[in-house]
Design goal:
binds zinc ion, about 25% strand, globular, about 210 residues, 2 domains
Length: about 210
């Protein structure tokens, strides 16, 4: 994502690019069952690069805000699937953020750890035949985890966040955010109680993807 738009003005300002990597394009109030939030639509420079964030409190005052960077999971977040822990993590995060003076949940449309919804369903089919989540992704020709948090970092900066406390179990996410210029001052484990159906999935996340799950 280091490519900067050449703005046709000759070769003098090479990488500066006038447009920011991500910017807020919509903002509205959002009352939820977890409390009152403000919802933001954030767009990147590339086509289709977008995210939604919900925020409460003043991010510029007091200690670093509590932030969850959540990857979309239609089956979990909406249909309450127990194949994974996404919905449980989403609810846990919103409850934690609601207790804080300020916080943000950034919701990224990178379904199925970045492989897309339909491919995720194909991976589920392979898992029903006995493969684990990592084996299934590899069989479909994808990396174990295709997610990229560079745009997430830019989206957080668009909200004015440079330093945060992160709700996460994923060391790779922390590393990517930090290398994109976001300071993670503290990691807060995101460990809701989960159903027995997701136990095998969680073990694979721990053993094969290095998630910090105790
Ligand atoms: Zn999920």
């Amino acid at each position: 994502m280091k490519r900067a738009k050449q703005s046709g003005g000759g070769r003098k300002a090479p990488a500066k690019g006038r447009a920011k990597p991500a910017r807020v394009v919509a903002r509205a109030e959002l009352p939820t069952s977890f409390g009152r939030f403000t919802v933001f639509g954030i767009a990147g420079r590339k086509a289709g690069e977008e995210a939604v964030a919900i925020q409460r409190g003043n991010l510029r005052r007091g200690k670093a805000p509590l932030v969850r960077v959540h990857s979309q999971c239609l089956t979990g977040d909406v249909f309450t699937s127990e194949r994974c822990d996404c919905r449980a993590q989403l609810e846990f995060s919103l409850r934690q953020i609601a207790k804080e003076p300020a916080g943000v949940l950034l919701y990224l449309p990178q379904e199925g750890r970045g492989i897309g919804l339909i491919n995720k369903l194909k991976a589920y089919e392979l898992q029903d035949a006995g493969l684990d989540t990592v084996q299934a992704n590899r069989k479909l020709g994808f990396a174990a985890d295709s997610r990229d948090y560079e745009f997430a970092a830019e989206a957080l900066k668009a909200l004015g966040i440079r330093k945060l406390r992160l709700l996460s179990n994923n060391p790779d996410k922390i590393e990517q955010l930090e290398s994109a210029g976001i300071q993670v001052s503290e990691r807060i484990p995101c460990r809701p109680r989960t159903s027995r159906h997701s136990k095998f999935y969680l073990r694979t996340k721990k053993d094969k993807l290095g998630h910090l799950l105790g």
